[in-house]
Write a structure and sequence with these properties.
The chain is of the alpha+beta class and about 575 residues long. It has three domains: about 160 residues, Sandwich (Immunoglobulin-like), CATH 2.60.40.2380; about 190 residues, no CATH class; about 160 residues, Reverse transcriptase/Diguanylate cyclase domain (Alpha-Beta Plaits). About 55% of the residues lie in helices and about 20% in strands. Strands 1, 2, 3, 5, 7, 8 and 10 form a seven-stranded mixed beta sheet that branches. A six-stranded mixed beta sheet has the order 14-15-13-18-19-20, sandwiched between helices. Strands 9-6-12 form a three-stranded antiparallel beta sheet. Helix 4 runs antiparallel to helix 12. The radius of gyration is 41 Å and the shape is rod-shaped.
Length: about 575
């Protein structure tokens, strides 16, 4: 039993020692498709900065640790670290390889290549140096080296206030070039798509004056700027000499991205109209976070700015989801689009933020989650905005239709009548006939039974006109107790017969008002276009004159230029 405990203890100690020195050497003949952090020996500067000779001594005495993961992610404000690699070239000639640290925001990097005890190369790079000082023109930190036969030891010191994320790769130059080319095409697709959506929505904003399209464009622009900063494209293309802005660009643009997203959300979900308190809370949050960021810049505290920015990213994701559910509860038809887009975009941002901060283990998928999420979010929100345009257009069409209808009877109103007939007037020269109708003694109805009873009479008359009319006839309420009917392609004689049919139908109506059954009549004036009518108003005026004659000749009659057709000829028997 004692021997068993000794064996277990020995095994445990062996595992501990193996963790200290287990990192295997790299071989120049092998291909490494993933990050190589697990091949490194790691020394952290917990007690102050170490010199290269001190690090060599620690390494020789095996005072190092090794990574169990392919990627190193040490979080914000981490102590500087040294990574040590052994590279073995078993061939008889030099072998060119590329070592690359594929994050773009590390402040200071010192790389030493040592062969047979001699330092062959010392390369200093990082964000605190102008882009032109980099040994290889690349948005990442790249070290090309020709490895001599035998063993080469690489010492790399990394120091940064920003998140210490170190995905480090060891590639053939051919593979590295191909991967860079694929990445260039991928980002070209991403940036091209974002720019197209951005410009398209700016055009829509200019045309429709709908603020949601403007704020969407600003949101996409903020994402584009943020992505350019943290991927290194911004330092590579836009501000290669501005090391100060390079150091501040990530936290400032991260906060800007979140601010633009919240402003877009509150306008897209129309909280200013439907939930003013929510809208004001969003605006107050934006002002507060922008003010805090300004304070960190004024006091020149980059670490505090980074903590603020990453915290705001998480708050942003939660807030966007909350806003979506509030809108959904309000019955906003577009809220479901917004929630789906937010889960993709803000979820991706939170996942990438957690990876960079070191809250979850680094892997390429979580690191690029914000880009994949934003592609989905941008497309879904663009679809939502298109749906919003359609909904707004439908509402406008509905409102326009209502503006052309009489609210009491549901018939077309005077405006609609003019819009219908003016094109016909300009196109056709003959057989344009209008009938003017006025309810007889309508004032007596209102005086005797009230305006509600008068409205009931108008409704019954409107229903009668609709029932008795032909499909091609156009009926409108002209105003008060007056109606007008357009009779197309109909001779005047036939129009008189149609008017008589209307008159008789009205006379047959039995309407109960005030407990009594009542019958009512109407008078009709008909006019048909001739050479003397220079405008539609002239024609309507003539019909109105014939209506006046019908009133003066005992009412309940039809008058036109033909003659006065007595109501007794067509009266009910």
């Amino acid at each position: 039993m004692k021997n068993k405990y000794i064996s277990v203890a020995f095994l445990f100690i062996s595992l501990l020692l193996n963790n200290v020195v287990s990192a295997a050497p790299l071989n120049t003949s092998d291909r490494y498709l993933y990050s190589i952090a697990q091949y490194s020996h790691v020394i952290t500067e917990n007690d102050g900065q170490l010199t290269l000779n001190q690090v060599k001594a620690h390494y020789q005495h095996q005072k190092t640790s090794s990574s169990t993961s392919s990627y190193l992610s040490l979080g914000i404000g981490s102590k500087p670290v040294w990574l040590i690699f052994e590279v073995n070239n078993e061939q008889a000639f030099k072998k060119p390889k590329r070592l690359s640290i594929e994050t773009s925001w590390l402040d200071n990097i010192n790389a030493y290549f040592i062969h047979d005890g001699r330092t062959l190369s010392h390369i200093k790079t990082g964000d605190q140096l102008p882009f032109a000082s980099r040994p290889v023109e690349n948005r990442f930190f790249v070290f090309d080296h020709d490895y001599k036969p035998g063993n080469t030891t690489i010492f790399i010191r990394v120091e940064s206030i920003v998140p210490l994320v170190i995905p480090i790769y060891f590639k053939d130059l051919y593979d590295a070039t191909n991967i860079d080319l694929i990445n260039a095409y991928s980002y070209g697709f991403l940036y091209g798509g974002i720019i197209i959506l951005l410009i398209y929505n700016l055009i829509l904003y200019r045309k429709l004056k709908e603020p949601s399209h403007l704020y969407y464009s600003l949101y996409m622009l903020a994402f584009l700027a943020t992505n350019l900063a943290y991927t290194g494209h911004g330092f590579y293309w836009l501000w290669p000499e501005s090391t100060s802005w390079q150091m501040w660009s990530n936290p400032v643009l991260m906060v800007t991205f979140c601010l633009a997203g919240l402003l877009f959300a509150t306008h897209f979900l129309t909280f200013k109209q439907t939930a003013p308190k929510v809208h004001n809370t969003v605006i107050a949050t934006c002002i507060t976070m922008a003010s805090f960021m300004m304070i960190t810049i004024i006091v020149n505290n980059q670490l505090l700015a980074l903590l603020l920015a990453f915290s705001f990213v998480f708050l942003f994701g939660i807030s966007m989801l909350l806003l979506g559910f509030i809108a959904l509860k309000q019955g906003n038809k577009l809220a479901i689009y917004f929630i789906f887009a937010t889960v993709a975009g803000s979820g991706g941002a939170a996942l990438t933020g957690s990876t960079v901060w070191g809250l979850i283990p680094y892997n390429p998928y979580s690191y690029l989650a914000v880009e994949m999420g934003m592609i989905i979010e941008a497309v879904v929100l663009a679809l939502a905005l298109a749906t919003r345009v359609n909904l707004l257009q439908q509402e406008k069409d509905h409102a326009r239709a209502l503006s052309r209808l009489d609210p009491l009877t549901g018939l077309h109103n005077r405006r609609s009548f003019y819009e219908k007939l003016r094109p016909i007037w300009d196109r056709d020269r003959h057989n344009i006939t209008v009938i003017m109708i006025d309810v007889d003694h309508f004032k007596t109805i209102n005086d005797s039974y009230g305006h509600t009873a008068g409205d009931e009479v108008l409704l019954r008359l409107a229903s009668t006109f609709v029932h008795e009319s032909r499909e091609e006839d156009f009926i409108a309420r002209w105003g008060g107790e007056e109606f007008i009917i357009f009779i197309p392609d109909t001779p005047l004689e036939e129009a008189v017969v149609i008017a008589e049919r209307y008159r008789l139908a009205i006379a047959r109506l039995q309407i109960v008002l005030g407990g009594k059954v009542n019958s009512y009549t109407a008078s009709f004036g008909i006019a048909q276009r001739t050479e003397k009518h220079s405008s539609l108003d002239d024609l309507i005026s003539e019909a109105d004159q014939y209506l006046y004659q019908a009133k003066n000749n005992g009412r309940n009659t039809v008058f036109s230029r033909l003659n006065n057709i007595s109501s007794s000829i067509f009266s009910l028997r």
